[in-house]
Amino acid sequence: MDSEYNANSSYYLSFLSRYVDDVNFTLWLHRTVVYPLMVTFLLPFVFVFLIYFSSISLYIFKFHSWLLLKEIKADDVKFWKVAIKFIAAVWDAHATLYHGYEICGLEHLPKDSNGLLIYYHGAIPIDMYYFVAKIYLKYDRLISTVGDRFLFKLPGWKIIAQALKVSPGTVKSCTETLNDGNLLAISPGGVYEAQFGNHYYELLWQQRLGFAKVALESKAPIIPMFTENLREAFRNIGLGRRFFIKLYNLTRIPFRPIYGVPFVKLRTHLGPPIYIEEGDTPKKIQEKTAAAIEKLIVENQRIPGSIVGGILDRFFEKRKIDIVVNSARQKKFMNNKDL
Description:
The structure is a single chain. This protein is α/β, with parallel strands linked by helices. The chain has helices at residues 2-20, 23-73, 79-99, 126-139, 157-164, 171-179, 190-196, 210-218, 230-233, 241-251, 282-300, 307-315, 327-334; strands at residues 102-104, 115-119, 144-146, 166-167, 183-186, 222-228, 234-236, 258-260, 267-270. Helix content is 56%, strand content 10%. Helix 2 (23-73) packs across helix 3 (79-99), helix 6 packs parallel to helix 8 (210-218) and helix 11 (282-300) packs across helix 13. It is globular and about 50 Å long.
């Protein structure tokens, strides 16, 4: 029986080997089968996109029509406020429908004073878009954000930055924003963390101290922020990491491709505020902030992240998270009672 099985296996392997190593056959396969299939599978998504766009638009007016009408009927109509309310409603509807987005720890967010939000940067900072939209609709406070300089070279970005208070950010300008009593969000990892982070959720801050200097000068409390399953909603392709690092270091432009998965549960966690104390230095503030964000990650995120698990989180309540982390990281942050 074994000899017959081995004979059949050898026959099939011999048959396949005639084509696997044939470059012409591979090219023919791609041109006549793979490419048409790609087009076939992509075209329906255009139709689905149009359906969902219509659906989201209807949800916007269903859930937020009273807010829009309230602003439009006001005696002192402010164009940007009406426009921002509409944009926020669009993003909030998208957040709810696609990712069941929610925020935990809102009690840590200052309601009428300044605060510096420091957050982990995903492949796409979609959580920050959702967060800004929800906070604006809920508290009527627009969070200023710091964006990478390459964004301001993109067509159409100028008007977005103007309306939503996005700026490249210097220590001086950020300090002034906080001293005016505003909320400001900064990701120390920035585009580098976005491009080269992975589903192990390690912080890639590269010794950046700018945000710490801002906190030190403004004395604003730091609110650590992390969004659960962020790397499962959008990921970078795994191939060519070294090449893309060299390309990024050369151009400072994010070229590494990204792919997304819908319906992954996204949940933003805010940690207790970190207050500036006497004797704090930028380095010490950075270390305390990094430890606070690491703590949020370890307490709330599967490591390594799971796309399937992230999707299931959307439909099943997660009472206790099974976290798999390396022992050193777990010991350092799970048992840290001082944070």
